[in-house]
Amino acid sequence: MKFLxxxxxxxxxxxxxxxxxxxxxxxxxxxxGDGNSPQSQxxxxxxxxxxxxxxxxxxxxTIEGNDQMRFNKDExxxxxxxxxxxxxxxxxxxxxxxxxxxxxxxxxxxxxNDFGQKAVKAKDNDYIPEDTDAVIANTRMIxxxxxxxxxxxxxxxxxxxxxxxxxxxxxxxxxxxxxx
Length: 180
Prior knowledge:
Blueprint: H1 2-19, E1 28-32, E2 41-45, E3 58-65, E4 75-78, E5 83-90, H2 96-99, E6 104-106, H3 112-120, E7 135-138, E8 147-153, E9 158-163, E10 174-179
Parallel strand pairs: 3-5, 4-10
Antiparallel strand pairs: 1-2, 5-8, 6-7, 6-9, 9-10
């Protein structure tokens, strides 16, 4: 009987170890635009029950925007060429039409005020001007309680600005995206 108990215990342990590496993954990708424009984005949702060694090269970033027009981060650091998976969470309660937020990474040297003035006129495009090459990556506009995830490749080494381009937000909802 003792032998049988030990065998069952060992078989149970082996089964747990063997099942430990099973992975369940769901991935939905949506590309907006033609895929070649600066405004194109990919939204990705993944869930996994084990770590994936290929994800070591991915910078997982979560940034929050609130009803007080603030991001919870004013600096983000990544490596050049690294895949960036950025999740924007709107932790407030106000709807998108009143207190919408997006996350926009601008090219180096972009004048934030000039870009913001153009963005005001682009309501139908989530406040991303269609006639600009100043956008490296951006999320769609979200309202209170929503979140969105984008994935993009970090640009070359340098210091870039990120903003929320909802009218009037860019003056306070901004930060530095530092690529090392």
